Amino acid sequence: MDQRLNGAVLFGQGGSRSTIRDVDEMALSSDEIEVACDALWHRKTAREFTAEEAELWERLQGARHGDYGGAASIELAEGDITLVRRALKLIKSAVPLDDDELALLQRLDRDSAS
Q1: How far apart are CA 25 and CA 40, in angstroms?
Q2: Is 18 exposed, middle or buried (0-12, 13-18, 19+ CB in 10 A)?
Q3: Which runs of consecutive H residues, i.e. helices, occur in 1-114?
Q4: How many other CB atoms sit within 10 Å of the CB of residue 19?
Q5: What is the largest CA-CA distance in the chain?
Q6: CA–CA gap between residue 24 and residue 12 (Å, rounded)
Q7: Distance between CA 37 and CA 66 in Å, rounded?
Q8: pLDDT higher than 90, residue 80
Q9: Mean pLDDT of the region 50-79
């Protein structure tokens, strides 16, 4: 059964849901939620947090488990995808991305281009 949190769709166990996903949305896995939160937190600690990033970070907190390998998933709208991509690219400009960060950035770039 789906749960809605501030307009985001949270998936039930096994990733099932009954709503139709818009083409301008992208589902993030539990591990990707953790990476997105970390990237946004980096922006916050650098005192470069925008109001939109703060709102997204707050919404993601309701879906995250704080650990890798969880069963959560969340749908991000196109604007949210842009915020996460920007945060990851800004980190990349300062320090090398780890494997998880790089994988999410590549997926966001690839999936949003199609």
Answers
A1: 19
A2: exposed
A3: 30-45, 51-61, 78-94, 99-113
A4: 9
A5: 41
A6: 21
A7: 10
A8: yes
A9: 84
User: Tokens in use for 48?
Assistant: 């470069």
Q: What is the pLDDT of residues 15-57, one digit of tens each?
A: 444 333 444 789 999 899 999 999 999 988 888 889 999 999 9
93: which 2 tokens?
């400009």
User: Measured between alpha carbons, how far is 105 from 95 in angstroms, rounded to an integer?
Assistant: 14
Look up residue 45 and give its two tokens.
Answer: 């600690």
Residue 102 gets the label, from left (phi > 0), alpha (psi -120 to 50) or beta, of alpha
Question: Which pair of tokens denotes residue 65?
Answer: 């488990």
Chain-centroid distance of CA 51 in Å reads 16
Interior/surface letters 92-102, b for 16+ CB within 10 angstroms, e for the rest: eeeeebeeebe
